Here is the input.
Amino acid sequence: MCYNKGMKQLIDCAMKREESDLLIEGASILNVFTGELEEADIAVKDGRIAAVGKGYRAKETYDGRGLVVLPGLMDSHIHVESSLLSPEAFARLAAAHGTTGIVADPHELVNVSGIAGAEYVKEAFSRLRIGGVEPLDVYLQLPSCVPATPFETSGAVLSGRETAHEIARPLFHGLGEMMNYPGVIAGEEDTLKKIEAAHAAYKVVDGHAPGVYGDALNAYLAAGIATDHECGSPEECAQKVARGMYVQLRNSSSAHNLEVNCAAVTPFNFRRFLLCSDDKNAADLAAKGHMDDALRRLVARGVPAAEAVCMATLNIAECYHIEGKGAVAPSYDADLVLVDNLTDFHVQAVFKRGVLVAEGGRALFEEGEHYLPEAVKSTVRIRPVSADDFKMDIKSGRALAMTILPHTLVTEGEIVSVQTKDGDVVLKNTDLLKLAVVERHFATGNIGKALLKGYGFRGGALAVSMAHDSHNLVVLGDDNALMARAVHRLEEIGGGMALVTKEGEESFPLDIAGLMSSAPCEEVVARTGAISAHAREMGVKDCYEPVMTLVFLSLLVIPKLKLSDKGLFDVEKFCFTSLEVKK
Here is the structure.
């Protein structure tokens, strides 16, 4: 009966028999159904749009003259943890840039803290309020791969049976990215149980299938997987769209494939493309923006503005079956973004269910007291390490070194000649660095070791505790003792970033599961930026983001060569491989 009462009020407002709560006057409205701009007012009642037109009465008016109204912007796939911000700080930054909803995969938190990590992020977001509404809708995806592969140590394990139990909970909107695409294609029983459980609960399954074509793509899609954000080329995008997938154009801090892959967009297929950020750090969010940044980049590449906006609004709502979102039309929620124009997309005002939540580039709500349950505290546990733990004795004189394709997450393998002295590889006068992954969940003492070519860093060690997807400690350097010191420093601060040289050290703690900081956004941006800048001064090449690139070198589901705490891994063969190349 309450819904019927609300419906009658909407109808009465639309027919001008009743006064609306809010009237946005004088703006141009981008119609995502027609692609046209319409000069009209927007009447809002009880958080929903009653009408679009002229001549309405309202208790409150907002002057939209000279601005363009868009539906609230959405991110179709994001790991909030990669921002390094608490949910409270992230929400303030995202709202200021016009984001009113995110499809969030708490994969990182769940790999560290189990389901309690997902419960934490949802609860932290839900505690935010302004004018009686939550300023950011969060559609939580249940991580499907914890761990991402069986070839690494994570802080938790979710089996098919546990996934079937959890996916039925209202907490989860869908199943997170199915990174174990080899398992899907091979028909592995436990992997398929997870997907079947999501379908039984009528929930969307996200995908992750880089370089999967032909028969393998058919097999992957036969499992009913809806999306993919890992396309490596416009041709891959086109093939996946042709087979019925939604393709997510990614604009992250490390991978900007949106600007290449948008070449696959046509006037016929644009409704099958979604925008996402996947991984966006605090500095990028603050300086460049969120989905507004993705829109600017798309339009600059020649994608019509109306099509670009659909990819950040209506397309996402339809893909994820999110009712009442994605358009400026009667009965839709009054989630509205007012921008200066359809080229720059500078956000002037943001409404969430008719409540003004951001204006003039800043959020109008506060973070409040941070919610920090015990499950996300004190999560770094390592067996003590020493300089000798980072020695690499390569007797054959030949090694398989990792290289990184510029501006991507993709790595290659290159056979290099090396010299060994006193049981350790010689790095001086080479373009090689040591890379190590130190297990941090159960103090097993596991340390995977590799060589990295071409990164450019020299004269110290750089270590992080956020390292996709199991989030063990990753340390890079050219001095064993300094590498050991960097690892110890991460343990001392409970996770975070550490840069160590012979002259000194600097670090920044990530006190939330070793992944995120409860510090204010400005402090996170300043201190992490300072560490990145220092690493850049130590030689990291311009084509790599100094810290965020390091975070992905242990991601065993992105081709071609990666490193886990258990050793060097060939992603294409999906098995371990040897650092030393025998003659």
Q: What stands out?
A: The radius of gyration is 24 Å. The chain has 17 helices and 32 strands. The first helix runs from residue 2 to 14. The domain at 69-360 is CATH 3.20.20.140 (TIM Barrel).
